[in-house]
Each structure stands twice: as C-alpha cells, then as structure tokens.
Amino acid sequence: MADKHKKAASAAKIAKDKMACNKPRRTPGHPTKSHVVKACKGGEEKIVRFGQQGVEGAGKHPKTEKDKARKRSYYARHNAQDPNPDIMSARYWSHRVKWMILSGILGADAIAQCLQHVGTTLT
Q1: How many distinct structural domains can be found in the chain?
Q2: Measured between alpha carbons, how far apart are the two ends of the chain, in Å?
Q3: In a domain, 103, yes or no
Q4: Angle, to 10 degrees, between the axis of helix 65-78 and the axis of helix 108-118?
Q5: Which of 37, 43, 53, 119 is the most buried (most CB within 10 A)?
Q6: 3-state SS string over the chain?
Q7: What's the pLDDT at 84?
C-alpha cells in the first residue's frame, strides 16, 4: 500500500525549473488536482495546482440546464470573493482554464455579457 502512495507522489512531482511560465497543463497522475501551472509575475515564481480531478468546467457556452446551473453556482461561490484575482492564485487559473473567464483581463462588459448568457448578473 505504501508503494502505491509513493508511486502516485513521484508521478505528481513537477520540476519547477523545466516548466514554462504561465502555461497550464493537465496532471492526470495527481491524486486530487487536475491542472498545474508555474505562475510567474515580477520575477516571482510559484507552482499552482487547481481544479478537482475528474470534474470538467461548464466551458464558455454551457448547453444543458445542469451545466448552466453549475456555472452560476461556481460564479456565486468564487466571484463574490474578489473581482480581480491575482495571477498567482488557483482561482485565477481555474477561471481561465476550466471556466473560460478571464477576470482582470476582460473588461467588465465582456464578463457581464458572459454571465448574462448563463443567467446571472455582475454585482
């Protein structure tokens, strides 16, 4: 049993110096997180893991009511915290990669248009 955990841990380790800055990638070998990115800003580097393993975001244009509800729920939980997340945070990368929203990069009108599409509003 211990060998299984060691193998999973070694598969999940990432060489920080070999990763490109701000280029997210999938981590199928990680036990809990689906993506990893080396976030770089102002000479600072940080490994950020984000996303629940096995769960997909609803994407830019959710088709089913279930996906639309998931997207509304996600925004209700996460957008209330801070409208402009830092590039060094997992929330920034989750918005960008799994949910296709670029907080802080797109203007408020573009974000409002996206949120209107899923049936919620920007406050």
Answers
A1: 1
A2: 49
A3: yes
A4: 140
A5: 37
A6: CHHHHHHHHHHHCCCHHHCCECCCEECCCCCCEEEEEEEEECCEEEEEEEEECCCCCCCCCCCCHHHHHHHHHHHHHHCCCCCCCCCCCHHHHHHHHHCCCCCCCCCHHHHHHHHHHHCCCCC
A7: 77
Q: How many whole angstroms separate alpha carbon 28 and alpha carbon 54?
A: 9
Q: What is the pLDDT of residues 37-67, one digit of tens each?
A: 999 999 999 999 998 888 776 677 788 898 8
Q: Is the pTM of this model over 0.70?
A: no
Structure tokens at 104: 């802080």
Residue 89 forms part of a structural domain: yes
Contacts of residue 80, Cβ cutoff 8 Å, sequence gap at least 6: none
Residue 123 covered by a domain: no
- For 53, the domain range is 2-118
Output the six-digit token pair for 17. 């110096």
Residue 30, both tokens: 């990680």
